[in-house]
UniProtKB/TrEMBL annotation:
It is a multi-pass membrane protein. It comes from Cricetulus griseus. It comes from the Eukaryota. Belongs to the anoctamin family. InterPro entries: Anoct_dimer, Anoctamin, Anoctamin_TM. Residues 169-207 form the Anoctamin dimerisation domain. This is Anoctamin.
């Protein structure tokens, strides 16, 4: 029985049918007085309209069974809000199933709570009434801990709901009537000690403790993040092996040898300001470095990552099923809980039923497609790509006169930095656009709204983060024409080309810089900003002497000076991890070190988020959940996109297909089966087209031009007319065939792995089955006793 004044825990003798006996009482007020705190500026007490609005709002809460207490300091007014037990009794009544186990079973379920979860509430409760009575005192206190999170969730829903049409707490905040609302941090010392410390980076997370304090939604995020980090270990090891295997062939690669020995081959100039023909041998170092990540092992690693992504998701589904069963949420329904909360807040509320109209759905679909695809996504993608293209073209023109030797590398590096800045800006724009689109659809429930917003925001973020990679992988260097007839931007600036060692080098550098910046700068900002803001607020309070001698007001002030949280606080953490997961899987063929960087980043991210939530931010409102929601579909979509993107990178960006074609068709092994030397002998000369320098407009201004009659460039074109050669079309056909074959093989492997690994473990299915059987047996026994009577 849960009351407003105390919490009473009952227990019966094991195996008997005697009435439940009271074993002890732990007074709730000893450690919990207020469910949440409202804050307003002191000046609102002098404004008649704002003060009247405050009183109306508080009176409305009071009519719903809430109590409040007002305390003022020098600048703020604090209102402690507490709800009567009747609200929570009604909640339990509405959601209690006819087959739900009785109080004895509910109490027995407390045995599933880990014995390591000793919060200070447990100690306080033991001292107050449970001390010396065995494990019941501790488990009773843990039950209280979960119950307090349950209270906060209900109170927060009621406070944030409409009191009358057009008058919500959010509206009052906009009009300056209130400043904010937050639940209090209470009982977090145990989490600070065991979880929110840098020294605990390699320790197992206390997921049950997190759930008891922050609710299931936050706990599932950390459970998923921990499992994702654990699964990154094999991916990081394999990626590192693939990368390091290139060192074994660092000096023995036939292609690298030919490039390093090509003293008599001159490359055509890339930029308009180039004044000399560069020897191919000058690219020796870059050729060796490119071989580190553009080798035959890349294909195997891409297939491995496709399998890894599938296994990771399938095993996570199994982990989630175990956790949800452990938390007794297997049959919980989010929609039913939202309806119950609506009824608690407003008993006469009308049910918002599901509506489907083909006409309205078609109109909404067309408008959404026009706004998302035509109005936003494509514009953002093309716009950002144009910004990057324009920047890279202009930067190439600028740096070519200053850094003639390394102009391409400088442009790639600075372009990656520019793209990172664009990502930071577009994240805020994308969130605003996604919210507007979501408001336009007017979702029926909060969970539906969250799901729709997740999909829209992720689509926008995906294009914002991956637009430059798509440009480099599949567009850069393919629309440039050829020497003597180059495609120009606005008829003035020559379009940028890939590095002379290949586009894989550009893609590798772009991914390395963007991932490096996101993992380092983002984590630093994510940690230092709330830390510095919190320190500044504390210093400001001490400087102006705002400290109170009232312990209750002091606790409220301590929570108020923490960093505020909002609806997007946990959402932003999920989005950050989804984008990182995309970098880890999509284009991983060009950057096999991505899983390793993600592993190091996640080890920091887990503790960083823990420290933020427990030490630097106000307490998040606990929310129930039995899965990670739409994010699971996002992960599955990324897995499919990764197969497609990696197949296209191997086919069109890397030199894998041209090497294979040369090896078995145009090379010495293709012409002579008894050839005993390396089958790639002569590949470099075969892969470079010939251009006569007399056809070059600026040939006379080139240094040493009298000694150079022919220069070479990366393409498959004829010597006369410079049209695409037969080799170009044959290699293109093989590339298309490889993409189709690779995607079908990889997707088949994914489907087989998904079928082979069941989503729900047999042990979980059996436990659910046993519980259903037990309930049916109890009903039969009850019916038999009733018949006998």
């Amino acid at each position: 029985m849960m009351g407003d004044e105390s919490l009473q825990i009952f227990v019966g003798s094991e195996g008997d049918n005697l009435p439940l006996m009271e074993m002890g009482t732990c007074r709730l007020e000893a450690f919990h007085q207020w469910d949440c705190v409202l804050v307003a500026d002191l000046q609102t007490q002098e404004n008649q309209w704002q003060r009247q609005k405050q009183q109306q709002f508080l009176e409305k809460l009071e009519s719903k069974g809430f109590h409040f207490k007002m305390i003022k300091d020098q600048k703020k007014v604090f209102f402690g809000i507490r709800a009567d037990s009747g609200i929570f009794d009604l909640y339990r009544t509405l959601l209690m199933k006819p087959e739900d186990p009785g109080p004895r079973s509910k109490l027995n379920n407390m045995n599933s709570i880990p014995a390591t979860t000793r919060t200070e509430r447990a100690w306080m409760c033991e001292e107050q009434g449970f001390k010396g009575r065995g494990p019941l005192g501790y488990h009773g206190a843990i039950l209280i801990l979960s119950f307090l999170g349950f209270r906060i969730r209900i109170v927060s829903f009621v406070v944030n709901s409409k009191m009358k049409p057009g008058d919500t707490f959010e509206d009052l905040v906009k009009h300056g009537v209130f400043e904010t609302m937050f639940p209090l941090h209470e009982g977090e010392k145990d989490l600070k000690k065991k979880w929110a410390r840098w020294r605990n980076m390699f320790r197992k997370q206390p997921i049950d403790d997190i759930r008891n304090y922050f609710g299931e939604k936050v706990a599932l995020y950390f459970a998923w993040l921990g499992w994702y980090t654990y699964m990154l270990v094999p991916a990081a090891v394999v990626g590192l092996i693939i990368f390091l295997s290139g060192f074994a062939l660092f000096d023995s690669s036939q292609i690298s040898k030919e490039i390093c020995q090509a003293e008599d081959i001159f490359m055509c100039p890339l930029g308009d300001n180039s004044r000399r023909y560069q020897r191919l041998s000058e690219l020796c170092t870059f050729a060796k470095l490119t071989h580190l990540f553009d080798n035959d092992g890349t294909v195997l690693f891409a297939i491995f990552m496709a399998l890894w992504a599938t296994v990771f998701l399938e095993i996570w589904k199994r982990q989630r099923a175990r956790v949800v069963l452990h938390w007794d949420l297997y049959g919980w329904d989010e929609e039913e809980e939202e309806m119950a909360l609506e009824l608690i807040n407003y008993p006469d509320c009308k049910l918002r039923t599901h509506h489907h109209s083909y006409l309205s759905s078609t109109i909404i679909l067309i408008l959404s497609l026009l706004m998302v695809l035509l109005g936003t996504v494509i514009c953002f993608m093309i716009g950002m790509a144009h910004v990057l293209v324009v920047y890279r073209v202009l930067a190439a023109a600028l740096f070519s006169s200053l850094l003639e030797q390394q102009v391409t590398t400088v442009v790639v590096v600075t372009g990656a930095v520019v793209h990172y800045v664009i990502i930071v800006i577009m994240t805020k724009v994308n969130k605003y656009v996604a919210l507007k689109l979501c408001n336009f659809e007017d979702p029926r429930t909060f969970s539906e709204r969250e799901s729709k917003f997740t999909v829209k925001f992720f689509i926008l973020q995906f294009f914002a983060h991956f637009s430059s990679l798509i440009y480099i992988a599949f567009i850069l260097g393919r629309i440039n024409g050829h020497p003597g007839k180059s495609t120009r931007l606005a008829g003035l600036w020559k379009l940028e080309e890939c590095h002379l060692s290949g586009c894989m080098m550009d893609l590798f550098i772009q991914m390395a810089i963007i991932m490096g910046l996101k993992q380092t700068l983002s984590n630093c900002v994510e940690y230092l900003r709330p830390l510095l803001v919190h320190k500044w607020r504390l210093m400001r309070a001490y400087k102006h002497g705002h400290e109170s001698k009232d312990p209750e007001l002091e606790e409220w002030q301590r929570n108020y000076r923490m960093n505020p949280v909002n609806t997007f606080s946990l959402f932003d953490e999920f989005m950050e991890m989804m984008i990182q997961y995309g970098f880890t899987t999509i284009f991983v063929a060009a950057f096999p070190l991505a899983p390793l960087l993600a592993l190091f980043s996640n080890l920091v991210e887990i503790r960083l988020d823990a420290i933020k939530m427990v030490r630097l931010q106000r307490r998040l409102v606990p929310r129930k959940a039995k899965d990670i929601g739409t994010w699971l579909q996002v992960l599955e979509t990324i897995g499919v996109l990764a197969v497609i993107a990696n197949g296209m990178v191997i086919a069109f960006t890397s030199e894998f297909i041209p090497r294979v074609v040369y090896k078995y068709r145009y090379g010495p092994c293709g012409q002579n089966r008894n050839f005993t030397e390396d089958c790639l002998k002569g590949y470099v000369n075969h892969s470079l087209s010939v251009f006569y320098t007399k056809d070059l407009q600026d040939h006379s201004r080139m240094e040493g031009q009298e000694n150079v009659t022919v220069c070479r460039y990366r393409d498959y074109r004829n010597d006369q007319g410079y049209n695409f050669s037969e080799q170009f079309w044959f290699i293109l056909a093989i590339r298309l065939a490889f993409v189709i074959l690779f995607e079908h093989v990889a997707l088949c492997i994914k489907l087989i792995a998904a079928w082979f690994v069941p989503d729900v473990p047999q042990s979980v299915k059996n436990k659910v089955l046993e519980e259903k059987y037990r309930i049916l047996r109890e009903k039969m026994c009850f019916n038999s006793r009733s018949t006998d009577v």
